[in-house]
Amino acid sequence: MDPTQEEIRRDVRDAIKGVVAVVDRREFVRRGREGEHLDDWWSTMADLGLLGIGVPEDLDGSGGGISGPVAVMEALSEAGTPAVLYLLTSFARTAIIRHGTEEQRRRWVAPTVTAEVRLCFAITEADAGTNSFKMQTFAEEDGDHYVLNGEKVFISAADDATHAMVVARTTRLSESADKRVGLSVFVVPLDAAGLDLQQMRIDLHSPERQFVLHLQDVEVPRENLIGERDQGLRVMFDALNPERLLVAAWAIGLGQHALQRGVDYARERAPFGTPIGSYQGVQHPLARARAHLDAARLMMYHACAQFDRDDEAGAYANMAKLLASEAANAAADAVIQTFGGSAFDADSDITTLWPMIRLLRIAPVNNEMILNYISERVLNLPKSY
Ligand SMILES: Cc1cc2nc3c(=O)[nH]c(=O)nc-3n(C[C@H](O)[C@H](O)[C@H](O)COP(=O)(O)OP(=O)(O)OC[C@H]3O[C@@H](n4cnc5c(N)ncnc54)[C@H](O)[C@@H]3O)c2cc1C
To answer: Is residue 296 within 8 Å of residue 310, measured between CB atoms?
Structure first.
């Protein structure tokens, strides 16, 4: 009999203890401060079989679907060690599994199980922002290869990844009758000639950093195009629901991590002789945060099950991302209030949680775009932008 989702989640949580033994929250923040990387973390994830979860068995994994990677991301985040390159690799490979050729799956999905391939994702451009259709990065077809030119910003963990999934225009916006046609997705090795990384000054208290990715006459063989030329939107759409769900897991796990720290502190701290956790003014925001995190979690699991059954998962995947990021923000705010001034002591590692939790209302997609999706696709309201 196949294991239930609850059994899978329990097994994942047990296995993650082995990863946290190598890099716990303290070590994660320290490596962020001192510019160290996560190489031993990746080898431990591979050794424990965690990277094969979500990869079909014929590609050396332990089974497809999104529920498994979501369980991994939730458990890592709950330990305070959310590795975004794990998230990026998990959803980027979904696009290759669904749209790639057999050769592409063998080259770029199977080796993610051993961490030999780690995929970052490059779509954002400075001027286009949320309106990705406006991107300028262009891939010119030239014989048996494409030549890429352009600049991507905020590309997470590009220095730890082996390849970037780059979204570029293959038909200029001005020449496209339909703005949704003309984008293409390429797998680009990060050591390609003409590709250059420049680290951005962003402090998320994480060992993973963000980069500007410059592409100057980068030659990419035709076989690195995923799916059809000009039809990259289809490829990306299939990766969007997994991305929403993995981000929900990131938010819920990190929110739960913050909440547990707040509860532990509220039990101990007693400036008036009784623990502050006995005051309802302290209890209720924490209790409310727990209720909202659990509600978001149930919706996330529901959307994961829909996705894995091949049902339409867009509505609940988007709602799960919205609710999870809001719940995590409320939890972090309640925890900062609970810690009082101590939250700002760098050694308490409380305000250090805030930038990343706050980010999740903005990236990888801002909550306004999620609300737009619900307005247009679920409520059938007209589009305004
Ligand atoms: C730490 C970090 C890591 C990131 N990692 C990656 C990565 O790995 N790869 C990658 O490609 N990108 C990455 N990004 C980029 C991220 O996805 C974008 O920042 C995000 O999509 C928002 O784009 P923007 O910042 O240009 O905001 P803008 O497009 O300038 O929008 C600003 C604000 O305007 C509002 N807004 C915009 N459009 C609408 C609309 N149509 N309706 C209503 N409100 C709207 C929203 O409130 C939004 O927050 C990262 C960003 C950060 C900060």
So the answer is: no
Q: Which domains does the chain have, with CATH numbers?
A: 5-112 (1.10.540.10), 119-229 (2.40.110.10), 234-378 (1.20.140.10)
State in Å: Cα 336 to ligand 1 middle.
Answer: 25
For 57-75, the pLDDT digits (tens) are 999 999 989 999 999 999 9
Instruction: List pocket residues of ligand 1, CB cut-off 6 Å.
Output: 120-124, 129-130, 154-156, 202, 204, 210, 359, 362-366, 368-369, 372, 385
Give the start-end residues of each E strand in the chain.
119-122, 138-142, 145-156, 163-169, 183-189, 195-199, 210-221, 225-226
Write the residue with the smallest CA distance to atom 24 of ligand 1.
129
Residue 2, pLDDT above cutoff 80: no
Whole-number Å distance, alpha carbon 173 to ligand 1 midpoint, is: 20
- 5 confidence band (pLDDT: 50, 70, 90): confident
What pTM value is reported for the model? 0.97
